[in-house]
């Protein structure tokens, strides 16, 4: 405590501690958005004379932040190219008939994808696919949606690109003089963590995931608001010729019901699953709006020119679902108070909130994080919402559909982006920026989409938070806090010390953001390297993995919140399912770090 007391004799240290405590209160209370908390803290540290503008703003020019901006664009190009279509097809296949098999697919396939693609767009893309699977199989969404979120969290620690927090930790590590993290710096730890997490999700008792049932009055795609009827013909060169509907690509890839088959003037009615398809067959389909637009680009069938559906897009209007993500400034206000229609040129038709669909007195409904709104608006207005970080558009517009012909190119560019810094001395940031340019030149992404893909709220937050680390180091506050922690852990075994640090980080992440936990704790934890006779990187990775294992609350990570409403979960459902995983990771991660970084 003497070192901490000595540090607090310094006026700059007192200012830093005051700004730090204010930031913690604001992060926990959610009074203002996290990125605004970061900017406020940044300005106060400069006003107080703790940091010069050059020191305070250094985070905005860091290679890690530039890498993240490029990664947003590369990820957008991958999704626009339809790179996940094969995964959608696998989920809809006949092999995936039970929740356990679906969870296995999520853990073994979706999680690795999240190692190179930010998990938020992965969840946003697969959420409607899993909801459609639940409707077909008559399985409650609450049985599978939380594992989707957890799988992406587990995959996020496989590589440096798996999470924005990984890049922030790399930036702070370089600022502290330990050097940046490399692309696969912690993959040897991330792989056992991922496989252990998948094993837990497969072996955990079914009772840990609640059965909330299928919502009878939910706005599902087979209702009039989203369901369409259309006709397709099978061309002579289609891969469907000679196949049965049951095993066809059409049935596996799309959420579609075949209502009638017309062949040479004859009308064949269900059951049709085992009937062999022929060239020239005409199928009457019921299909979601989302898959109807994708179907137009699919070469295995052709939309009948005289049977295009009369959709909700008449008069330039279209309907989409939008989600209030974590940190949305709209939460806490009613639609009437927000003047939602005037602000966004959009009409709210319904509000879905976990257990219920609100359809009456919408103007007086106070919005909450995780709410899903069904809105009707002009296409231009909806496109404007795509760059608004208070609302996350869950649907795709026709002009924003995947350019499926560019899929191989997008995948090849992404693979090259990963291999280049691995096999050559080329820096990761250069490889990512080159990939962005190639994606745009190759037609995988338009320039406007590249700009819209960059999450300004994330960039502002991650650019501001490194200033805390710099201030804590310069004022001696990090040394003082580390000294106090060292007294607490005096004579403890290395494993027990790392376990305490990991668990403390995990619990702090549940009330702060994971980025804030990393920025605040890494400078303190790494000061324990000499007293504990451990490499600084071991302490750094303990904090990083602790901040990435958010399995206890819906607010701990945005993907948890994204599945919270559609899964109709209650607050403690997340903790009940995630507690065992948290305990498992608390015991496993420190052991892995000691074993692989220190040597057993």
**CATH architecture designation of the domain at 319-400:** 2-Layer Sandwich
Q: Note poorly predicted spans.
A: 216-228, 305-315, 355-361
CATH third-tier fold name of the domain at 319-400: Alpha-Beta Plaits
Query: Would you tell me the overall average pLDDT?
Result: 80
Rounded Rg: 25 Å
Top-tier CATH class of the domain at 319-400: Alpha Beta
Q: Can you count the beta strands?
A: 10
Structural class of the secondary structure composition?
Answer: alpha+beta
Description:
Among the domains are: 227-307, Alpha-Beta Plaits, CATH 3.30.70; 319-400, 2-Layer Sandwich (Alpha-Beta Plaits). The strands form 2 sheets. The chain has a 5-stranded antiparallel sheet with strand order 3-2-4-1-5. It has a 5-stranded antiparallel sheet with strand order 8-7-9-6-10. It has 28 helices and 10 strands. By secondary structure, it is of the alpha+beta class. The longest helix is centred in the C-terminal third of the chain and has 29 residues, at 571-599.
SSE blueprint:
Blueprint (H helix, E strand, L loop, with lengths): L1 H6 L3 H19 L4 H14 L5 H4 L6 H18 L4 H8 L6 H15 L5 H19 L7 H11 L8 H12 L11 H17 L23 E7 L15 H5 L2 E8 L2 E3 L13 E7 H7 L6 E2 L13 E7 L11 H4 L1 H5 L2 E7 L2 E3 L13 E7 H7 L6 E2 L13 H17 L4 H14 L5 H7 L2 H9 L1 H10 L1 H12 L5 H18 L2 H12 L3 H4 L3 H13 L9 H7 L6 H29 L1
Antiparallel strand pairs: 1-4, 1-5, 2-3, 2-4, 6-9, 6-10, 7-8, 7-9
Helix pairs in contact: 2-3, 2-21, 3-20, 5-10, 5-17, 5-18, 5-19, 7-9, 7-11, 8-9, 8-27, 9-11, 9-27, 10-24, 10-26, 11-28, 17-18, 21-24, 23-24, 23-26, 23-28, 24-26, 26-28
């Amino acid at each position: 405590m003497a070192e901490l007391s000595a540090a607090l004799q310094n006026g700059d240290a007192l200012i830093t501690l005051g700004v730090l405590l204010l930031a913690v209160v604001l992060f926990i209370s959610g009074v203002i958005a996290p990125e605004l908390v970061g900017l406020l803290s940044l300005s106060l540290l400069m006003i107080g004379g703790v940091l010069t503008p050059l020191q305070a703003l250094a985070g905005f020019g860091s290679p890690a932040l530039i890498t993240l901006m490029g990664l947003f664009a590369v990820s957008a190009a991958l999704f626009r190219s339809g790179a996940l279509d094969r995964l959608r097809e696998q989920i809809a296949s006949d092999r995936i008939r039970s929740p356990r098999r679906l969870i296995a697919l999520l853990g073994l396939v979706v999680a690795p994808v999240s190692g190179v693609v930010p998990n938020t767009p992965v969840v946003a893309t697969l959420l409607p696919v899993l909801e459609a699977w639940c409707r077909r199989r008559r399985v409650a969404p609450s049985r599978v949606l939380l594992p989707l979120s957890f799988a992406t969290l587990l995959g996020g620690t496989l590589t440096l690109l798996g999470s924005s927090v990984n890049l922030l930790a790399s930036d702070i590590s370089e600022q502290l003089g330990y050097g940046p993290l490399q692309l696969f710096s912690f993959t040897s730890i991330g792989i056992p963590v991922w496989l252990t997490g998948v094993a837990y999700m497969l072996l955990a008792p079914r009772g840990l995931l609640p059965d909330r049932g299928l919502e009878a009055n939910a706005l599902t795609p087979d209702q009039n608001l989203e369901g369409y009827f259309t006709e397709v013909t099978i061309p002579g060169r289609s891969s469907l010729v000679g196949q049965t509907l049951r095993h066809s690509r059409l049935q596996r890839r799309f959420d579609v019901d075949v209502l009638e088959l017309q062949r040479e003037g004859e009308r064949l009615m269900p059951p049709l699953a085992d009937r062999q398809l022929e060239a020239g067959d005409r199928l009457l389909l019921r299909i979601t709006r989302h898959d109807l637009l994708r179907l137009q680009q699919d070469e295995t069938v052709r939309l009948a020119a005289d049977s295009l559906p009369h959709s909700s897009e008449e008069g330039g209007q279209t309907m989409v679902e939008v989600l209030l993500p974590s940190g949305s400034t709209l939460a806490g206000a009613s639609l009437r108070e927000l003047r939602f229609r005037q602000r966004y040129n959009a009409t709210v038709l319904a509000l879905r909130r976990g257990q219920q669909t609100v359809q009456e007195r919408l103007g007086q409904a106070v919005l909450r994080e995780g709410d899903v709104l069904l809105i009707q608006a002009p296409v231009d207005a909806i496109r404007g919402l795509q760059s608004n970080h208070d609302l996350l558009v869950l649907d795709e517009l026709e002009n924003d559909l995947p350019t499926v012909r560019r899929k191989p190119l997008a995948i090849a560019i992404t693979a090259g982006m990963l291999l280049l810094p691995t096999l050559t001395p080329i820096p990761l940031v250069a490889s990512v920026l080159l990939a962005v340019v190639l994606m745009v030149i190759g037609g995988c992404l338009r320039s406007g989409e590249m700009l819209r893909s960059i999450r300004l709220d994330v960039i502002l937050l991650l650019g501001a938070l490194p200033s805390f680390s710099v201030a804590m180091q310069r004022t001696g506050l990090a040394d003082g806090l580390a000294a106090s922690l060292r007294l607490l852990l005096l004579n403890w075994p290395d494993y027990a010390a790392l376990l305490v640090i990991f668990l403390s980080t995990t619990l702090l992440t549940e009330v702060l953001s994971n980025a804030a936990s990393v920025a605040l704790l890494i400078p303190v934890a790494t000061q324990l390297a000499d007293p504990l006779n451990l490499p600084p990187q071991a302490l750094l990775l303990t904090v990083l993995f602790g901040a990435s294992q958010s399995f206890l609350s819906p607010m701990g990570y945005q993907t948890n919140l994204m599945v919270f409403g559609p899964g109709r979960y209650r607050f403690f459902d997340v903790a009940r399912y995630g507690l065992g995983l948290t305990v498992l990771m608390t015991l496993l991660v420190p052991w892995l770090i000691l074993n692989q970084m220190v040597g057993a």
